[in-house]
Amino acid sequence: MTITERAPSTVGGSGYDLSRFERRLIGVHLFVAIIALGIGSLIGPLQTFEYSNVNLYQYLEPVLQSYYQGLSLHGVLNALVWTTFFIVGFTTFTTIRGLRRPLRHPRINVAGFAVMLIGLLMAAVPLLLDQATVLYTFYAPLKASWAFYVGLTLVVVGSWISGLGFFLTLHAWRKDNPGVRSPFIALAGVINAAMWQIATIGIAVQMLTMLIPWSLGLIDATDPQLARTYFWFTGHPLVYFWLLPAYVSWYGMLPKQAGGKLFSDSLARLSFWMFLIVSVPVGFHHQFVDPGIPQVWKWLHAVLTYGVFFPSLLTAFTVIASLEYAARQRGGTGLIGWVRALPWGDPSVTTQLLAGILFMFGGISGLTNASYNLNLVVHNTAWVPGHFHLTVATAVTLSFIGITYWMVPHLCGTQLWGRRVALVQAWTWFVGMVIFSNAMHMLGLLGAPRRTPLGEALYVPDEWNGHLLRVSIGGAILLVSVILYLVVMYKTFRAPKVEAALVPEVPIAESLRHPQLTPVWLDRFKPWLIAAGLLVVLSYGPQLVDQIMDMSLNSPGPDFKVW
Ligand code: HAS
Ligand code: CU1
């Protein structure tokens, strides 16, 4: 095969400078994301202190009425708002910069942002007024104000609109570059957007046919079982919607930052296509204990969950191989001694390495959850937040933080303020999360329920106490880390502009083998989209038909509020 000179491959460096408009568009996404993370993460430690019976909520009463209002804000702001705004902003960046061309229809992407922002503001009002204290999973029959549901729906619709903008931009690039493999970081971002469009059908149906009419009083009651099934149709792939942008960075950027190359462009693409196929048809692993879903469907989703484990194993292999290659280029030696040769002094690298290390443990707890038998032990216990603070709150969030360490100065034309402070931020996050999440896992095994202000309990088994204290200690360390992050971001934003050569460049990793050698089937949407659609229909279709036929809108009556 001849490799055309035209092939822009995935090589980074210079080549396309973002316009002022593009910088601003991406910047406003990041701005909203970081504010959400800031507020959401400041609430988290309050919950951990509560576990040790230190109730700071009482001092915040005019703003926060209860532990549950705080927990709802924490979950919505961190898990839904920080992630979604960051991801859409970052994918705008990887689309433009990966393809080295402007957005095909920038107005679409501006509209996407505007709709997301309006949705966020709509959802924020009832949340702050204690009218949406329904936690981030908003399980019926907990009922929030209609504005909360409409607002969240608009956030999703806005992300669809932006996704369309990415897709049209990639499409235009492909027309101009026939036969050339799509640059990895751009393709991977669009695959994630495509997966998200399929995944969010569940929540769209839930909102439009159940929760919104119910909250508006148009229907009297709802069916919690069906609502949960719709929710987890979206809720599980949601976690990969969060994870995949971190993988874009681990595969497509981190190797360059570490001084090496991407070990295999083909494996990187394969893992993204696998996520497109198997991210959705696994939602019943959140409903193993729910009545009304026959065992065989739970079994099928459990098997497919082991399938979705596989692309992460591929990722561990490929990313660690890329890092080892980089480290050996830098003079690293030994079976694992090479790890020391990685650029641990670079906060953007260190955050992502630490995120990856904790993700290995998050993967193990995920595997535990996925086993039907073990899930019966850990479901609804503190183990589950233990699991997802290693995944979404570390693998994803700490990686996103690491990305902002080069991206924010890049967009602002400044340099990262306080390199050392940022390193302390990375390590405090790591240490805080190790302590916090280990204690949560242990508490879960001892039977402590999740989503419960345990400090208020009149009696807890003695063996919980040490772990409850460690949860609070972890939370305190994380509080320091969040504050350091906000300071670094603020100072970087306000730092004096520097000449272009001193601004951090965009780290786009070259592949060891030229991407043009990657098989064509790893660059085609159609077969993968068909497979994804088929698998969703097979794994959910019959069960959804059954549940819809059996639907009983009787739970509970119109005026039901438990908080
Ligand atoms: Fe999960 C519950 C199963 C991954 C998030 N999960 C949750 C909830 C959240 C969540 C938020 O089967 C709670 C939902 C709620 O509120 O009720 N999860 C899994 C499985 C995986 C998994 C099998 N989860 C994630 C990810 C998340 C996330 C990713 C967020 C981003 N999870 C479950 C199940 C439940 C669940 C059940 C229901 C529990 C219940 O009963 O309620 C897998 O995808 C995990 C695969 C991961 C790996 C690890 C690979 C390691 C890598 C690291 C490489 C290292 C590097 C660093 C790069 C196989 C890739 C190298 C460094 C050097 C220095 C060299
Ligand atoms: Cu899941």
Strand content: under 5%
Number of DSSP-assigned strands: 0
Secondary-structure class: mainly alpha
- Oligomer description: single chain
Specify the CATH homologous superfamily: Cytochrome c oxidase-like, subunit I domain
**Number of domains in the coordinates?**
1
Question: What best-fitting shape do the alpha-carbon axes yield?
Answer: globular
Polypeptide structure, described:
By secondary structure, the protein is mainly alpha-helical. It has a single domain (20-549), classed as Cytochrome C Oxidase, Chain A (Up-down Bundle). 66% of the residues lie in helices and 0% in strands. The protein has helices at residues 20-51, 67-99, 106-128, 146-176, 184-199, 201-215, 224-252, 254-257, 265-278, 295-329, 347-370, 372-378, 383-412, 419-445, 465-494, 526-549. The longest helix has 35 residues, at 295-329. The chain is globular and about 60 Å long. The chain starts with 19 loop residues before the first helix and ends in a 14-residue tail after the last helix. The model is unreliable at 1-13 (pLDDT under 50). The protein binds heme-as (HAS) and copper (I) ion. Heme-as binds next to helix 7, helix 10, helix 11 and helix 13. Heme-as binds at residues 137, 239, 242-243, 250, 285-286, 305, 308-309, 312-313, 315-316, 319-320, 323, 339, 353, 356-357, 359-360, 363, 366-367, 369-370, 375, 379, 384, 387-388, 391-392, 396.
